[in-house]
Amino acid sequence: MYETILTLHSYWAYIVLLILIIATFNAIIKTAGGKEYSAKDFRVSLFTLIVSHIQLLIGIILYFVSPRFELWSELGGGVMSNSLARLFLVEHPLVNIIAVALITIGYSKHKKKLTSKAKLKTIAVFYTIALVLFLSRIPWSTWMA
């Protein structure tokens, strides 16, 4: 079960990153170009929200079925002194939960804005920060290894 969920989590991450990059750059380009917010922008930002939440759910399941989870009982506070254990058990989950929260906040706030510029700017800011956070905590050395 662990291997299946790990593979799903890894492949779904490609989808999340691709859609998040599309949504982010779309909002940045349209904001900079003074273009109007459209139904396509709404759908892209919504799809980003959905795929990121699915990834979060897969990640939460993976966290608890992972053999690494047992390191909490073996190492206790020593998890923080082991850089690889800290990455997988603390940094990756925490930072990515924050990133998904930022996507959720950005999506919710953009719906309340009245002008195209305000809507697109809100998406651009929140989704860009989320993208940077995601990219900062991907375990690049082990992703798809």
Overview of the structural elements:
This protein is 80% helix and 0% strand. Helix 1 runs antiparallel to helix 2 (39-65), helix 1 (2-33) runs antiparallel to helix 5 and helix 4 runs antiparallel to helix 5. It is built from five helices and no strands. The longest helix has 32 residues, at 2-33. With 145 residues, it is mainly α. The model has no long low-confidence stretch (mean pLDDT 89).
Short description:
This protein has helices at residues 2-33, 39-65, 71-75, 83-112, 116-137. The longest helix is centred in the first third of the chain and has 32 residues, at 2-33.
State the secondary-structure class: mainly alpha
The count of β-strands is 0
The H-and-E topology, N to C, reads as: HHHHH
Q: Mean pLDDT, nearest integer?
A: 89
Strand content: under 5%
Rounded Rg: 17 Å
Please give the count of helices. Answer: 5
The biggest beta sheet reads: none
Unreliable segments of 5+ consecutive residues: none
Bulk shape: elongated
Please give the alpha-carbon distance between the first and last residues: 18 Å
Helix content: over 70%
